[in-house]
Specification:
Number of strands of chain B: 7
CATH topology of the largest domain in chain B: Dna Topoisomerase Vi A Subunit, Chain: A, domain 2
Order of helices and strands of chain B: HHHEEHEHEHEHEHE
Number of strands of chain A: 15
Distance between the termini of chain B: 70 Å
Oligomer: heterodimer
Structural class of chain A: alpha/beta
Helix content of chain B: 40-55%
CATH architecture of the largest domain in chain B: 3-Layer(aba) Sandwich
Number of helices of chain B: 8
Strand order of the largest sheet of chain A: 2-1-4-5-6-7
Number of domains of chain A: 2
Largest sheet of chain B: 5 strands, mixed
Bound molecules: adenosine-5'-triphosphate, magnesium ion, zinc ion
Chain lengths: 370, 201
C-alpha cells in the first residue's frame, strides 16, 4: 500500500500564515533560500504522526508570531487502510488536539494511519551525542513496524516517573515499588522485544540490498555496553534489587530507558561515531531506506519520509543515488535544499515546490525541476 | 434603556450554576430562567430537595458511598452480603455499576488512585479500611474495578499485595475495555460483560 499525504493546508503555522500544498504522490522537492519556510513545512507534515514533531517543539512555539492565534493543520492522507482526513490544531496556551475523519482521537491513533520517519540536520551528530537521541530515532523506526510500541513506551515512562518520585522522596513502601515495577517490567520487556523485532527486520532488509548507501550493523546495548535485563522476570528482579542503589541516585538505573543503539559501518568495521561526517549521514540514510524496504516487506506499506537538507554532506553521485532509490521504493519523501540545482536531473520525477518568504510570511508555488 | 449591570441575586445564581460540571454560562442562564418561570412546579421542590441533601448527605463510614445515612443502603441491605467487595476509584464509578445492576455484592470507594507525582499515597486512600473490612466481614472475593491507566493499575497491584496475607481471592475487571476511560462512561452491558470476564490477579 502506498501511503502518502495528498493535501496539506496550514493556518498560522510557524512562518506560514496560510498555505496549501497538493501532492500527487511523487516525492516532493522543496527549495528556496534560507529562512523561506521549508523546514517549517516538513515540521507540519511531521505533526501528522504522534508526538511533538521533528523539532520536538511545544504546541505554542508552532503558532505564527506575532499573531499568536494558535495553529491548525488539515491533511488528506492515503493511509494504510484508505484515505483519511486528519486535522490537528492547538489554540493558544492549549495542547494539540487530533481529529481523524472528524472524530476526536488520542494522538497515538495517528501512528496507525501513517508510518513516518525523518532525518534532520540536528541528527547529523546523532552518533556522537548522548544515547537519548539514538533511542528516540530507534523507537520511531520501531513504531513504524509496531504502532502499539508507542503505548508501551508511554506506560513505561509514566510508571518510571512515578517510581523516580518515590525514590527522590525516599519513600520505603515496598508494595508501592512492587506495583510500579510490575508495570515497568511488563511494558519494559515489551519495549525491548519490539526493538529487537525492528532491528531484525532492518538487518534482513540490509543484507543483499541494492543500494549506494553503506550497510550499518545495528545492535541494542545497555549503558556502557553492559548487558540489560530482557525478560519480564529479569527486569522485575533487577528493579527490585536496585531499589537501594536507585534511591541513592534519585532515579531508576536499569531498564530499556537506558538502552543504546550501536551502529558499525559494516564495510569498514568502524563504529559510527568514528566515521566521517558524510559517512555518518550516509549511515542514517541507509537505515531510513532499509526501514522503508523492511516495512514494505513486513507490513506491505510505505512510510512517509521527511529528509530535511538531506543533500548537504552528500556528493553529487550519492545525491543522484538517493533520488533514484527513493523513486524505486515508491515512497513519498519530502526533501529540502536551498537551490533547485541540488535536485538537478530529476525533472518531472520529483514534484518541485518553491518556497519563498516576504515580510515574515512564507509562500509556496509549484515549480518544475531542472 | 440598558439592562441592569449590577450583579444581582439571579446573576449570582447563574454564576453558581455555570460552575457545575457540563454547564456553561449560556446553559446556566437558560436553566435559571426555566426555574424562576416555573416556581411552584420546579423551583420550590428543587430548593427543598437541595436543602435536604445539603443537610443529610454524607459518606458511608463503611464503604465511602454517598447517601443520607451514616451507613449507606447497600451496606445495610443484608441481601448484598454476598461475600464480594467491588473496589472502585470514585463514587461515580459505584453509581455507574449500580445503574447496570450487574453486581450484587458490596463496594469500597478508594477516593482516587495512588500517584507519587500528585502526592497521593496509600494513607490518603481508603486502603487500610479495605484490608480491615476483608478481615472482619468474611469476604471471599475482592473485585478490583479500577481504570486501565497506569495509576489505576498501580493501585490494583498494590491492593492485591496488601490483601495477600488475607488469603482472599482478588480479581480484576477484564482489561482493554476502558481506554483511559472511566467506568462512568461505559454502558451497562459493557460493565456486566467486564464483570463476568474478570480475571484472578
Ligand atoms: N512561530 C513562528 N512564527 C513566525 N515565524 C517563525 C516561527 N518559527 C519560526 N519562524 C521563522 O520561519 C522562518 C523559516 O524557517 P525554516 O526553518 O522553515 O526555514 P528554511 O526554509 O528551512 O531555511 P534553511 O534553508 O535555512 O533551513 C525563519 O525565519 C523563522 O524565524
Ligand atoms: Mg531548514
Ligand atoms: Zn456503604
Amino acid at each position: 500500500m502506498r501511503c502518502y499525504v495528498q493535501s496539506l493546508t496550514l493556518a498560522q503555522f510557524r512562518s506560514h500564515a496560510r498555505a496549501r500544498v497538493l501532492a500527487d504522490g511523487r516525492p516532493v522537492a522543496l527549495f528556496g533560500p534560507n529562512g523561506a519556510g521549508k523546514t517549517n513545512l516538513l515540521e507540519a507534515v511531521s505533526m501528522l504522526s504522534p508526538g511533538r514533531g521533528l523539532r520536538r517543539a511545544g504546541a505554542d512555539d508552532l503558532a505564527r508570531r506575532p499573531a499568536g492565534l494558535g495553529w491548525k493543520i488539515r491533511a488528506e492522507v492515503q493511509g494504510s487502510d484508505g484515505t483519511h482526513e486528519i486535522e490537528t490544531a492547538a489554540p493558544p496556551g492549549q495542547s494539540r488536539s487530533v481529529r481523524i475523519d472528524g472524530k476526536l482521537t488520542p494522538q497515538l491513533a495517528l501512528g496507525r494511519v501513517l508510518a513516518m520517519l525523518w532525518l534532520t540536520p540536528a541528527m547529523d551528530r546523532l552518533w556522537t551525542e548522548g544515547a537519548e537521541g539514538r533511542r528516540r530515532f530507534l523507537d520511531r523506526m520501531v513504531m513504524s513496524f509496531l504502532p502499539d510500541h508507542a503505548e508501551a513506551v508511554l506506560t513505561y515512562e509514566r510508571a518510571m516517573r512515578e517510581r523516580n518520585r518515590l525514590l527522590r522522596d525516599q519513600i520505603g513502601d515496598d508494595a508501592w515499588y512492587g506495583a510500579l515495577e510490575h508495570q515497568m517490567s511488563e511494558s519494559g520487556a515489551q519495549i525491548t522485544a519490539n526493538r529487537r523485532t525492528a532491528l531484525l527486520a532492518l538487518a534482513e532488509a540490509t543484507t543483499g540490498a541494492q543500494t549506494a548507501f553503506p550497510a550499518a550493523e545495528l545492535s541494542l546495548t545497555g549503558p556502557d555496553d553492559s548487558p540489560q535485563p530482557d525478560t519480564v522476570a529479569d527486569l522485575r528482579a533487577a528493579l527490585a534489587e536496585g531499589r537501594r542503589r536507585d534511591m541513592a541516585a534519585g532515579r531508576s538505573l536499569s531498564g530499556p530507558h537506558r538502552a543504546d543503539l550501536g551502529a558499525v559501518y559494516a564495510a569498514k568495521g568502524q563504529p559510527a561515531a568514528l566515521c566521517s561526517t558524510g559517512e555518518q549521514k550516509a549511515l542514517l540514510i541507509s537505515m531510513v531506506l532499509a526501514n522503508a524496504r523492511a516495512l514494505m516487506a513486513r507490513r506491505g506499506l510505505a512510510p512517509v519520509l521527511l529528509l530535511d537538507e538531506v543533500a548537504a554532506h552528500l556528493d553529487a553521485d550519492r545525491r543522484a543515488a538517493l533520488y533514484d532509490e527513493v523513486l524505486a521504493l515508491d515512497v513519498q519523501a519530502w526533501m529540502t535544499g536551498t537551490g533547485q540545482e541540488l535536485f538537478a536531473g530529476t525533472g518531472h520525477r520529483l514534484q518541485g515546490l518553491r518556497v519563498t518568504q516576504a515580510e515574515g510570511i512564507s509562500a509556496i508555488e509549484e515549480k518544475e525541476l531542472p | 434603556m440598558s439592562p441592569p449591570t449590577e450583579p444581582g441575586e439571579i446573576d449570582a445564581l447563574i454564576a453558581q450554576v455555570a460552575r457545575l460540571p457540563g454547564l456553561g454560562p449560556r446553559s446556566a442562564r437558560r436553566l435559571v430562567l426555566h426555574l424562576v418561570r416555573r416556581r411552584a412546579q420546579v423551583l420550590d421542590p428543587l430548593a427543598r430537595a437541595l436543602a435536604r441533601v445539603a443537610e443529610a448527605a454524607r459518606e458511608c463510614s463503611l464503604c465511602g458511598n454517598i447517601s443520607t445515612s451514616e451507613i449507606c443502603p447497600i451496606c445495610t441491605d443484608p441481601r448484598r452480603a454476598s461475600g464480594e467487595i467491588c473496589v472502585v476509584e470514585e463514587v461515580s464509578d459505584l453509581w455507574a455499576m449500580e445503574r447496570g445492576g450487574a453486581f450484587c455484592g458490596r463496594y469500597h470507594v478508594l477516593g482516587g488512585t495512588l500517584s507519587a507525582l500528585d502526592a497521593i499515597g496509600p494513607e490518603d486512600l481508603r486502603i487500610p479500611a479495605l484490608v480491615n473490612r476483608v478481615r472482619d466481614e468474611g469476604i471471599s472475593e475482592v473485585i478490583l474495578a479500577l481504570n486501565a491507566t497506569v495509576d489505576g493499575q498501580t493501585t490494583a497491584h498494590y491492593i492485591a499485595e496488601m490483601l495477600e496475607p488475607c488469603g482472599v481471592r482478588v480479581s480484576a475487571l477484564a482489561q482493554g475495555v476502558p481506554m483511559g476511560g472511566e467506568l462512568d462512561y461505559l454502558d451497562d452491558g459493557t460493565i456486566g460483560a467486564a464483570l463476568r470476564a474478570r480475571k484472578t490477579l
